[in-house]
Amino acid sequence: MPEITFVDFAGNETKVDVPSGTSLMQAAMENMVEGIEAECGGSGSCATCHCYLTTDWHGKISDPDSNESDMLEMVTEPKDLSRLSCQVLVSDEHHGLHVHLPESQY
After folding, report:
1. How far apart are the C-alpha atoms of 49 and 101, rounded to whole Å?
2. 45 C-beta neighbours (distance < 10 Å), count
3. Is the pTM of this model over 0.85?
4. Nearest by Cα to 96 from 18, 9, 11, 40
5. pLDDT value of residue 104
6. Model pLDDT for residues 74-83, shown as the tens digit of each residue
7. 33 phi, psi to nearest 5 deg
8. Which of 21-25, 28-32, 40-44 shows the lowest mean pLDDT across its residues?
9. 49: number of CA atoms within 13 Å, CB side?
């Protein structure tokens, strides 16, 4: 089972074992990780599960589709590797992934 590390804006880390096929948002919610609001419940329509991936994972996670890209235009602190955590599904190859959370969701 992949271990994912959620990092809040202050640098505090929460390590979570995540079953493959689970979204990053769902993993955060089930493990009470602060900084993921998930107001729409994972439908990709609110951007309150915004997160940042690190450059070492670029290309190992699918690119956002057009709907996710449109929603990412609404976030207050966008970066090149911004994602909606509800749209990123964990697989076994994601063991060790670090997911950074923006200050705006606290």
Report:
1. 9
2. 14
3. yes
4. 18
5. 86
6. 998 899 899 9
7. -80, 125
8. 40-44
9. 23
With beta carbons less than 8 A apart as the criterion, state whether 15 and 4 touch: yes
CA angle 19, 21, 24 (to 5 degrees): 80
- Residues across the chain: 106
Compute the C-alpha angle 3/72/26, nearest 5°.
35
At position 91, the amino acid (one-letter code) is S
- Greater confidence (63 vs 14) lies with 14
> SS3 for 52?
strand
Domains and their CATH numbers in the chain? 3-105 (3.10.20.30)
* Residues paired with 7 in a beta bridge: 13, 100
Q: Determine the pLDDT at residue 59.
A: 80
The runs of H, that is alpha helices, within 14-104 are: 24-30, 66-72
Residue 58 has pLDDT above 80, yes or no: no
User: What token pair was written down for 99?
Assistant: 């997911």
